[in-house]
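Hi R.,

Here's the chain you asked about this morning:
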Amino acid sequence: MNEFFLTHRKTKWAGIILLALLLVVVLLIEFFDWNLLRPALARTVTARTGRPASIDGDLKVHPWSLTPRAEVNGLRIMNPGWAEQNLMFGAKRITISVNLLRLLRGQLVLPQVDLVEPVINLERDSKGRASWELGTTEGRPNHDTKPVKLPTVRSLTIENGKLHVDDKIRKLRFSGTLVAAEQEGHQNASAFQIRSSGSLNDRPFRLDANGGPLFNLEPSKPYEFEAKIAASDINLEAQVNVLKPFDLSDLDVKFALSGHDLADVYYLTGLALPNTPGYHLAATVHERGTVFTIDDLQGRLGTSDLSGNVQIQTAGSRPKLTAKLSSVTLNMADLEPMLGHPTNDSLSMPKAASATAAAKSTPSAASSAEAGGVASPLNTGPLLSDANLQLNRVRGMDADVTYRAASVAVPKVPMKEVSFHLLLDNGLLTMDPLSFVLDRGKFKGRVQIDARSNIPVSDIDMRADSVDLSQFKSAAKPAPLEGTLVGRLKVRGRGTSIHKFAASSEGGLSVVIPHGQISDAMAELTGINVISALGLMISKKQTQTEIRCGIVDFKDQQGKLNTTTVYVDTSNVLITGRGNVNLDDEHLDLAFQGDPKKLRLLRLRAPITLHGTLRHPAMGIKVGKLAEQAGVATALAALLTPVAAAIAFIDPGLAKNKDCSTVLEQANAGVQNYAQN
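And the predicted structure, written out as tokens:
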């Protein structure tokens, strides 16, 4: 060796210089004042986050290990200027170690991460600016919704952590504690634990997570943990499988979710879901980047079952929900919350849960009203709900949903199927088609709500297609009406609630019975033929009278449905009517008059009235003022134009219908034979 250095003096001196330099580097690292790097490190954090950052305490590095460790004391990252809290993130001490051998293989593994007294303040204002939107000083949305990819952590401890969230968009406020610790030396399934508690919208909130030990965690092996969230009446239990720890863009989550109103899940997910009765849902979510896929959704909304496939895409300016859902049996009462009338949860909850809900009736009502429902579950108020549409929710996501119920439970209505296709695009909601299929006939049409402006504009165009009236009867009695009914409802209105929309609506409602039969008792009652009508009813020996043509037509002006035509022409009686329905105060003011086509004894010429409200209608006899005598031919002539207009509004082909066309021809000719009788 000595001979080598004697003959290779340059190599000798190069080695000496290299060793000297290495020694200098070692001495510099050992005695270097790492605090000199604090300003540079703070500037780097500021540049990356767009937030002012500082390091107020010591910066320490312990390099002489295969797992070198760094300690940062007093790190502070500030919120944007508009935020109520100045500090976004701060910690008394942060300790992080790195596995050098893993790093040389391209894997970032952190054997140790310790946070002492971390404080996190996250805020979003009503303009949509969020402090967690990093990269800009104002925190404006950059729509970068890719999940975070965290390095593999083998030991995580959080001591006395505090978390505060204030989201003006979701009306969410959360202040709680965050604690995480791994129980050293334990190999049980819950060696790693996270405990967080606080409040969500002034109600208790708690998050508990339990996972296996982290110290033998490998980047290539899945990591599983369980999480439970209790927020108000929302209960979520989840089993999470992180396929590549801790790559949060590649997860499988099996969950069970329950609560009183699915719309409240908005506070946790940001998804604008409809108001529902008590629910219980279970599924497995596969997250791959910005796409969440559910292939096995199963559960119940109230007493109705629900299953199907769901996909949620979070990339872009708004999340988009795509779903194909179905029910074996739909209880129509379970749709009432969507219209602003929540059902009684006691019908769908266990007795203990029902008692708990009753004990907390006051806060539950407040939550329901805020989510778009009404405070009282009793059907004593108006039929048309005044619960306001949550515009920020409708504008906050897109959707493409198809739904079909194979059977339907609804009292006294022989309905067997409900289906719709819902599209929601940037605040424009369309249900087309919307279909209610009866045993014989169906109601179908289109509904649109344009919520892109401050006051939504809604359009409804629904048709009754070949509805057989004989199917509407009780089990023990014959149908009072037989025949085929067709009709159309076409209205347009403005307002944030169903009531406001109805009170401002413009349009029309027409119903036509081209031919059929009506019980003599019902026909005679419109003329109050005491002997004939009451006798038929008492004896129950009701006979049928032919309906030659029946038409009911309303014109809607500013929420007031005024009759233009009430016309039912039978073999024995011509029934006409007049009046209105006020959709603002929901009062009814209708009167029906029957004119016989042959002599009737003891006839009382007083019309039958329909008054009261939409929810509680009442029938009576207008005895204070006798109806004026009017010739049948004159009545027909006056009705001719409205009759023709109503038939054309529904279906131009009805004008060629044998029965209605005959009525029109006779009306046009004056039908003098009626007047003579």
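Residues 28-248 form one domain.

Let me know if you need anything else.
M.
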